[in-house]
Automatic annotation (TrEMBL), chains A, B, C, D:
Domain Peptidase M20 dimerisation: 237-331
Binding-site residues, Mn(2+): 153, 155, 189, 213
GO molecular function, one term: para-aminobenzoyl-glutamate hydrolase activity
Organism of derivation: Turicimonas muris
Protein name listed in UniProt: Peptidase M20 dimerisation domain-containing protein
Cofactor(s) listed: Mn(2+)
GO cellular component terms, A-Z: cytoplasm
Record InterPro entries: Amidohydrolase, Bact_exopeptidase_dim_dom, Peptidase_M20, Peptidase_M20/M20A_hydrolases, Peptidase_M20_dimer
Cofactor: binding comment: The Mn(2+) ion enhances activity.
Region listing for Disordered, in residue ranges: 388-408
Keywords: Hydrolase, Manganese, Metal-binding
One GO term (biological process): folic acid catabolic process
Length: 408, 408, 408, 408
């Protein structure tokens, strides 16, 4: 997504201070990476900073609709709360989250004008940070303190930029008009966190919406604007439950969840191409079985579908659902399909592109603006786009036929 | 099955006449081979001969229950009736069959005694008879007159033996007691014809039941008695019906019956082994699709299951049914499963074995009696066995859950 | 493809005569539809007419390279030659074809100038023409005389237009310069006939190349120019050969070609999407097996791949090849893969588009010119495009690793 | 296997002492359960006791042929050695094992006579012992001290019985003749340990061979003799290695090990039945893939085949091998097949049965002897049977085509 222009040349002095603070913030967050739905330390940091700046802050069930939450693991949440408590996050704050991370801040300039929203994502990825002495975070002492977790996708920077921008707005409020909504989103990885915030209505009435991602295909001084090109996507967890039996003595008494899963995989890989748009079906993981000589009882598949349009993605999800149900019927096993992540397509408005271009030109060090029409990934910020994809932020999550589970 | 002892030594003179007649009858039938459910010429020949011997004769719906008929092709029946008419079979006879071949004859000695049943099968196989000049039927002028059809499995001989035995009974009726039921069965190939005759009740009250097959593993002078070893079997025709589409332009609009069939085949081949008895799943034919670039609309599978016990065979049929339904659901196609043949297991009674042994010893040229416990094939005479498999001739055909068809 | 402008307004009188002749020619061809590689009557008609107009005519091995011929069935050719002979095509002509249909005509105006090539396809499709009295060919007496064959795709019209244009060139030769190559191509259906003509070098040195198709998406008065959008495609016939066995008695002795084919189908349907371009894999037909209780010996698959680029299509063909080889290895069966059709992508030059537009405007009744960028089908005329796809008409057919067959 | 008669009535007094010692030994071993190839503490205990009794003791490479070892995990071995050292097993002993568990003891009475071998297995299973206060090992204080490991299959008792018998032989040596070979076998679970001991030649020259298993289908006072009925079996670990790619951005660059594995599973489940004997194919575990949106690089399958005869099992293994190779070829992935366990069939000699019956009758509390002909499991003691399966202990492991791995 577009890296937005932070400041103009005139406020150079103040900018430096903001920049320094942003660097410190980013490093602090970098050292405490938290995966999706466990961002309690980060949420606390964001919440405290926004309050200190005079923003109105919303957390927990005030920020999102829990029924729309996807891919949240209560066990991990529990552990993260304990860890945050040990790090000094006050019990009162943790309680008020009701177990849901994410922070929404609002600020009103007091002057009539548009309502402008920004999205910043806060979660890390499951990557082990290198201990190489030349790695900057190691050298400068802000490497990840949490084994197996790392801000390798730049969300630490996004959050730091968000807080810097919040400060800049406050410091420049006399020159600004209208109001601001800042969404510090949990669980962007796996496209799990935007839906429940969109459902809370935060973007229903905004006039402008911006989001960005550092790096991507851009060099220093370059601004890339993703005009369109995100795939709609559904992340699905499929499980089958069979019946155990001694595979040597009584093979006929068992019902193999493993074979049902393999059959489903073969069928899912073969879902038809679609002339309406490009498609992807990725079966990323399959774990099945308990022992070599026992008819497998459990099988779990992690998969995702992607479609060039929401309709094309729905076509894939419908086929996956049929296949899973059919495989369960064929093998007399039970099944469950869980939607654990979701995003839709997105098209930047020409007006938005124009605004960003003009803003970029005022930034020191600016070189070029590049427009990207095909990014090839998926982003759940698409669910927050208010005007251009009016249906997507609602309809998409409504049919929901694929969210439940069913038992034969 | 056991080749039963025809006559004893005392009636040697008469025997010769009977033998000559049997040879002539067999050659006549050999020259007019008729496949299952088309044996109109043969039925007429049998019917006429039995009547001339003074037997009570039952044909058409008096001989069998049409609802129990399996694997009968109305088109082939139609053509066979026309052919029989051209061969001089009277219209009155053909009408009275109501389209169903098969003849049951009964004869009462007038003296109290057991009721004894025999089964003789009449249908040929789809084999082209050789035109080799040294082939006896060619040399002697009684080769098949019907292209692609031949009595290559000896049923012509069985029928001829049946008629010879009917004559012998009449000629020896003063020395005999009780009554006789002779079943001249259609459509043994594909195990299609015995069920509807059993359902008519012909064997419900008999005290002895015999059936035989010439050749098999026996040499001249040898009597083989199949004590047990037939597999229970179901012959199933499975079809899928999809939705066509131009596979290049609109692949997503089609529903491929071909792929559903392939998926079902892969799953059916993998049906579990069964510790209760040996199993077979044979997918013998698959024809699917209309053109290279059209999503296939039609797919037809011919398959058979075999089980060492009826229960084991039912286990296979149940799995096939689940798989077909599951594949149809997975691919959003319609399906149909037709039971087109069925037979069960069979165990000869020790008393029957004893009787046959004793009778064999009285026959000139007799050498040995051999007992076979594992024959490895299937025979629908098993459905006619009245006392030893009481459940099989009834229950087996009742659950019938796999006979119907279902549409999604 | 674009329907090219035949004539300008000035020659209106002569045009009528040409038109009348074209109508008659088309009707004659319509009544004798011949499928791919059997167009002997049509080739004779074309050849005679071109000669009578003073064109140089090339047939048989003078017109094409037989080693490059795809999807030609010698049995059908044999029958077609007999049929043509009965229709009065002279034996000398038939002999000179050496069994290969197709006619190339050349004409030199005697004046320096560009070399311009046109392609006209001659084969029919396997469709039964209706006998409806209101169907124009029935009413006017020029319906198909050959059961199951029909010019339902308009190639009769294309050929008639080609001959009309040939006449027009002769009649207007004083106003024209350069030379002409007219390719009357066999076997366009199945994309089988263009390759061997391209390989003969007919288009290696031409400056302009045109081809067209009547109808498609156009109305009367409309000219549609297909600027780009054809898929590269490969038509493949895959066969497996197994080992028979009695599926009840000795299942372990058989090797099922049917199961190998089903497994290959499941794997082929699942060939990965490709980020470089759209893909299609269509398994159109599968016929396998000999009888219900015999391990299937023969299985034949008709399939096609399509790719948005030649590379993408090659990716698909490579995967199909791997899968077929793998399935054969897994099931210990033999396999054969035959390339029976092939076409590549194609992009019309801007200059060509411009020329056609200008020409169209001079035609009476002209309404609009429409440019099509996505046609969604495949056409082997793509193999004849000389300059724009220099690699395609050669390289594509060279790797040829998938053409041979291999035996385990 | 047969529970052998330990003692006769006359030596009752001494018997009690031996029994007490056996109980203590069993409890000690029960508290330190060690899984296959990690039985260092148990091996030390056995070795020390045998030496103290005056037996000749062989361990490490003196006991087995390391090249024949199956399913040994060097990492687990390393940890087990550390654990044993902490438990006080001397470093000298651990070193002399060269990392291989298992103990063979020999004893010569000094009198001419037969050579008699016994097999006792020492490994535990991966089961967590209950902490229920009423569970005897808990109540009596000898429950497993090693989490997740338990002697739940009675091998602790077998080893204790072996040591008791060793003592009894010593104490009764004046009444005995010939010599004894006692095999304290590692890794019976998974049928991994017998082969390398057989290969060392310990049973090549023995005249009698006995092995037993407590419990099974027998009650107190009952002796069950397994006359025949073990399946031949192969335990196979199959792995596929693919190529990663971002499944959304570049699906065509990846090669999915997961899909290859699923395809192989579908094909393996469908391996043909065999008329020569009953078969089993059990795919017990499948773990594949690294992340939802990454083309899976790793897939690992744990499976086993079983056949009523060695030939039938070889048929299954050959098919598995073909299928794995075929799937790898179809999907362009690498594969590896490892044989990690193996056992063959076994038939007790009539003489052995007779000996055991007579011995049983002399034991106090004896009730019945039962003969089992179908046990339905597998036991690698079958590989140690010297005379009756001469081929099995050698030939079976020689073709070994399925042991290696291959890279495409």
């Amino acid at each position: 997504m577009a890296v937005f222009a932070l400041v103009n040349k005139e406020s150079k002095e103040r900018q430096m201070n903001i920049l320094e603070e942003a660097i410190q913030t980013r490093r602090k967050i970098h050292s405490r990476p938290e995966e999706g739905w466990t961002e309690f330390e980060t949420s606390y940091l964001v919440s405290e900073r926004l309050k200190s700046l005079g923003w109105q802050v919303y957390i927990g069930l005030d920020a999102l609709v829990p029924e729309e939450v996807l891919g949240r693991n209560p066990e991990l949440v529990e552990k993260a709360i304990e860890r945050a408590a040990k790090q000094g996050v006050p019990a009162a704050f943790l309680e008020s989250t009701q177990g849901y991370t994410g922070v929404v801040g609002t600020f009103d300039t007091g002057r009539q004008g548009p309502r402008t929203a920004f999205r910043f994502d806060m979660d890390c990825v499951q990557v082990q940070e290198t201990s190489d002495a030349n790695h900057v975070p190691v050298k400068e002492g802000f490497a990840s303190q949490i084994p197996g977790m790392m801000h390798a996708c730049g969300h630490d920077g996004h959050t730091a930029v968000g807080l810097a921008l919040a400060r800049w707005i406050v410091e420049n409020k006399e020159d600004l008009c209208g109001s601001f909504v800042f969404i510090f989103q949990p669980a962007e990885e796996g496209t799990r966190g935007a839906g429940p915030i969109a459902a809370k209505g935060w973007v229903d009435d905004v006039n402008f919406f911006f989001a960005g991602h550092c790096g991507m295909y851009c060099q220093q001084g370059q601004l890339g604007i993703g005009a369109k090109g995100f795939f709609a996507t559904s992340k699905l967890d499929v499980s089958f439950t069979g019946i155990p039996s001694h595979a040597g003595a009584y093979p006929e008494r068992g019902r193999s969840a493993l074979t049902a899963a393999c059959s489903a995989v073969m069928m899912m890989q073969g879902i038809s191409r679609n002339s309406e748009g490009d498609t992807r079906v990725s079966i990323g993981k399959l774990n099945a079985g308990e022992g070599r000589n026992v008819t497998p009882v459990h099988a779990a598949i992690q998969l995702e579908t992607r479609g060039e349009t929401e309709e094309v993605n729905n076509f894939l999800v419908k086929n996956v659902t049929n296949i899973v149900r059919g495989a369960a019927e064929a093998y007399e096993v039970k099944y469950e399909i869980k939607l654990v992540g979701h995003a839709t397509t997105l098209t930047t408005t020409p007006k938005g592109v124009e605004l960003l271009k003009r803003a970029a030109e005022t930034v020191e060090g600016y070189k070029t603006v590049d427009i990207y029409n095909s990014i090839g990934g998926s982003e759940d910020v698409s669910l927050l786009f208010p005007t251009l994809t009016p249906d997507s932020s609602r309809n998409l999550r409504e049919p929901r036929l694929h969210r439940g589970s069913q038992t034969l």
